[in-house]
Write a structure and sequence with these properties.
mainly alpha; single chain; two-stranded antiparallel sheet; 72% helix; 2 strands
Length: 244
């Protein structure tokens, strides 16, 4: 483990702890039942600094993987129907993260962590593409869910609305454009990267990504979109040679 890995771990864990604390204390989020989506969206911001990591195994195995069993355990505990066996058992079931884990699709946050772990490990050499997958999941899927539930009127498929799908497209588009320009800035400044996308291709590629993500989110069942959206988006862009 080298200095960049230590810095990445410190920043990431500090950020996650702060975001969980904010989500657990912000009454507005609780009032509108948005605390889970808040975490879902805000964790996507890790792509802004995850390039500081210098080892894929540190970024994946020490940063993302530990959350998988923790979230799975919390989800299992929160969904149990039997009586708590101890005070600690009861507190775990009532904990903020346990309730957030089941507030929506039960394994959604678990699959979210799995996607992070896989992309951090296998797409470490092209974090620009990995970041596209993450922000489309975080902002596209996250904001689509919020807007669809709150403002969606016209249902088009399995309870999902036109308004929600358009929000997925809009936020995936905006997030993709941001990531492409951000990583181009890192590349041209000599800070990070061996891959970038020429400016002339940013808008057409981002439009393609946003349209793809909107369709996938519409037709993918439940929590599985937290796997399908990021992994398939990155795979398609890699096959097409984007940023190569």
């Amino acid at each position: 483990m080298v200095d960049g890995d230590v810095l990445g771990l410190l920043i990431t864990y500090t950020y996650v702890i702060v975001m969980v604390f904010v989500a657990s204390k912000w009454e507005l989020l609780k009032k509108y039942n948005m605390h889970r989506k808040f975490i879902h969206i805000m964790i996507g911001n890790i792509v802004i600094w995850w390039w500081v990591f210098q080892s894929n195994w540190v970024m994946s195995l020490l940063t993302a993987v530990p959350f998988i069993p923790v979230l799975f355990m919390l989800t299992r505990e929160a969904t149990r129907k039997d009586e708590p066996q101890s005070k600690l058992d009861a507190e775990v079931r009532r904990s903020f993260l346990a309730q957030a884990s089941i507030n929506g699709h039960k394994l959604g946050l678990v699959y979210y962590a799995i996607s992070w772990a896989l992309l951090a490990f296998f797409a470490f050499d092209n974090l620009m593409l990995a970041s596209i997958g993450i922000v489309c999941m975080a902002y596209g899927d996250g904001m689509g869910g919020l807007i669809g539930k709150r403002y969606g009127k016209r249902k088009i498929h399995h309870g999902k609305t036109l308004e929600g799908t358009m929000a997925v497209f809009t936020f995936a588009l905006a997030a993709s454009i941001f990531v492409f320009f951000y990583y181009d800035l890192l590349f041209t400044s000599g800070i990070y990267g061996t891959h970038h996308l020429a400016v002339i291709w940013v808008l057409p590629v981002s439009l393609f990504v946003a349209a793809y993500v909107a369709v996938v989110e519409l037709y993918t069942p439940g929590e599985y979109d937290n796997l399908v959206i990021p992994l398939s988006t990155v795979a398609i862009l890699w096959v097409l040679g984007v940023g190569g």
